[in-house]
Prior knowledge:
This protein is an alpha/beta fold. Helix content is about 30%, strand content about 25%.
Amino acid sequence: LIFPEMSIDLMNKELADDIQEFARKYEMVVIPGSFHEQNSKRNLSRVFGPEGVLWEQEKHIPAIIHIDGKRFIEKIETCRGPKKSIICNTEYGRIAVIICRDFLDMDLRVELKNSDPPVDIIINPAFTPVTADFKAAHFDARRSIYSYCFFANIAEFGDSLIYSPEKDRVERTLPAGEEGLIVKDVNLFQLRSERKKWEIQNQKSFIQSTRN
Length: 212
């Protein structure tokens, strides 16, 4: 279960406890977007499982939002060293949580593409009015990274979507201003099998093109 960025403030202990209890009761993985951790001044996404917190992912690139001609920069601390993105191996597949505009970083997407073993599911909680850039990046990633891509944006700006690499895929989106739930069945066996075929096909195409 995935929520948008900044939609649930986990600094509120009651909310955090409710999320943990929900994950335990229904034996689910819950990603309640991300929140500003006041002590570290970082934007963190905390992933809950039935047994507790599975991992945390921090945001690397602060948001920049323009409202009424004014420019606002998200006031968070970011890592000064190498940027660390966690890929966690779960029963639902190998999952990476990438917060908001971090996903627009081409270098990060290349790292995801080259990860070994490959990432199966990309979770991208966001709070952004600039949805076209994200749609383009996710549309590309579904095949270049060959994974399921979940973009969960705050309802005010909308365009939350699920992209998947299947040939017969059906695009699932939520329009701006509408709260709702979109669902996708994830078939890991099929995904990994088709990914292998895709990699072999692309390798052959590359070899053929270099001979011409």
